[in-house]
Write a structure and sequence with these properties.
It is a single chain. This protein is an alpha/beta fold and 341 residues long. The chain has a single domain, classed as TIM Barrel (Alpha-Beta Barrel), CATH 3.20.20.70. It contains 12 helices and 10 strands. The strands form 2 sheets. The protein has an 8-stranded parallel sheet with strand order 1-8-7-6-5-4-3-2. It has a two-stranded antiparallel ribbon with strand order 9-10. It is globular, with a radius of gyration of 20 Å.
Amino acid sequence: MNYPKKVSLGDITIRDGFQHEEKFISTQGKIWLAEQLILAGFKKLEVTNFGNPKGMPQFKDADEVMKGIRNSKLIKDLVNDVELTAVTIREKAVDRAIEAYKEGYGPDRILLMVSTSEAHHLKNSGLSLDQYWKMSEESIKKAKNAGMKVNGTVSTIWGCPISGPTDMKLAVEFSKRWLEIGADDIEHADHDGSASPNRVYDYYSMLMDAIPDPSKHIVHFHTTRGWGLANVLAALQAGMTHYEATMGGIGGQPANFVDGIPVAGTGEYYYKDPSAVGLVCMEDMIVMMDEMGIDTGVDVDKILEIGKMVERIVGRKLRSESINMGRVSTSVPQMEELEYA
């Protein structure tokens, strides 16, 4: 097997993970998690969404979360070396993030998103693809002039939960376009767990032929059908070095029901069972990579402890196998410790 010996990991629990929860996650809980992840060694966190909180009330505290992380005494010597990202799908969100950045607490990096499926893109952004590309060009210029980085995400690469199959070649073309208009890196998103390992390997191999710099690419998988870690392995085999995931594998489409109140979200859930969705589990991915001898740059034992606390924060059992089973033992049992039938 051929795979990188070192990877870069970004945690997106506070944004992508918590956005699917049907109870509001407290501001202090979000800040606590950011602090602990940074203390565990993470250098990249996606922490909020600057979009309209009427549709996504999980992010009504976006400014408070950003300020709390920036001003935390616990991580004051570390936070300046951490890249904080906020999602900014539309113009007003971009402008809001830029203003926050100018005031000293905003994100270092913003995220814009296109889908290769026109139907999904329209539902997610409210704009056609042509309209969105034009908006993105203008937004990237504004963000760069302010001193911020920009991520261009490509979604529905392997399939669309609304319109079905998609063409992977179109995702490669969209990736090129993001870089041409000034994006710093590209997130390649399996939006609903449509990707299978063979198609993951095919896509990233095709992508590396077109844009052969792995530092420009970020791997993002959902595990709706249980294929998440298999897809991570396929991406590793294709030479990918940058990954993101959520603690406990939580996350998905923004909740349309929060604290007992129906909200706009992005409309009706795409999935038969909203509780079954989720991203690749960060704890399990880290333990797997560690067992493979891959340097993740984070404290594995601390991550497992944080995982237990995230279950307490959301108030339910999550997907992680590793926080229950722990790491694989490396100690050799002595003869007297062995039991014989």
